[in-house]
Amino acid sequence: MNIRRGSALVGAIWILAVLSVLIATYAVDAQLQTRINLYLQERVRVDHLTDAGIAIAEVIMLDYQNVTVDEETNYEEKLEDDRWYMEKVDLKDNRECSTGAVPVDALNPGGGSVTVRIKPIEAKWNINNLYAGGDSNFAKIWEAILAVSGVPEDYWDGIVDSWCDWRDTDGTMTGDGGAETDFYKLAYEDFVDGRDVEKNANYLPASRDGEITDLDDLMHLKGFNEYEEEPISAQALLDGGILNPMADRDEQIEVKGIRKYFTVFGSGKVNANIADSDILVTVPGIWQPSSTGSAAFSEQDVSNAMDIASAIVEIRKTGNQRENLSGGAMDDDVGTFKDWNDLQLRVQDAVGGGSSYIQQEAQQYLSYAPEKFFEVSITGESLGITHTVKAVAIVDNGKVRYIRWQEDP
Fold this sequence. Notes:
Oligomer: single chain
Radius of gyration: 30 Å
Number of strands: 14
Structural class: alpha+beta
Largest sheet: 6 strands, antiparallel
């Protein structure tokens, strides 16, 4: 009898133990499911936050050209009428604008926020046009960019020739520094097989033979990775640093980086109303080399070009010369240039040197219309969960169209 009771007790204990494990398992599952549901809820929330950010970005991009600023501007009143007034002013002045973290629900600040950043990108050279099939002056533009970036002339042919072969579609090697698919295929195989690993790490098995969609594509070019069969730093050439880190310290070359001069979008012209002086100084006609070769890039030539470029930037910021030329009070749009004649006259007054101080050659490379291409970054955040959208937008005819879109890149 006692044995039976003991067995029943042991059985009951086992049943209780199993039930306890099951209950604990269900509790853990319930807790995990609650967390999953909370994550999904917040994920949906941040998706809605980025939707709100897209709406904010489009309001700013579609209206920034309509804002006005003068000495009598009352910013508090402007902000009462237009929540995004300062962001529009920044964009009109060719500055990246940022909204900061904006609570979407003012009554519930803990309900998440969205941050919007917008940057104009057409104030640079469209690199896809800078080859023999795109612009007859492509070499002159490349040389100006490389010169002001501190890249020694010995490297130029390899950089420019290899870019032309990467961009064109003819399969014929350009100059002595070019490289077509045969070169890249062999270099890539050497890397895969463990030969020349350090020099060939960036190479792809074939040249692009067409337009690039990302400036990081330049990392794969022969002229960006080697000079006279010695490795150089493609990263430094693009973003600044020591070009030849493998050389002895006293022979190392520091460069500024050329990425900032290029974009992969736009008309191929430089917008005179938003480009900074570093870009403007490379425009043919503003950049006026006194001769060919290294002598063309004397300190005096650089100084002359920088004087013009700096004058353009200063005039559009302050409205300098507009009142003198118009014969009356300055209008609301005092900083911007209306066209080639307006720019030439105002710079002539500011810098001197006659009406040909900016050569006629520059006319074909300058535009004046409101900006059309923008980089847009939108981040929604709620309870530590974020959702980021990075896009390239084109604004035309009162509409915003997205030509590149990445979510959580």
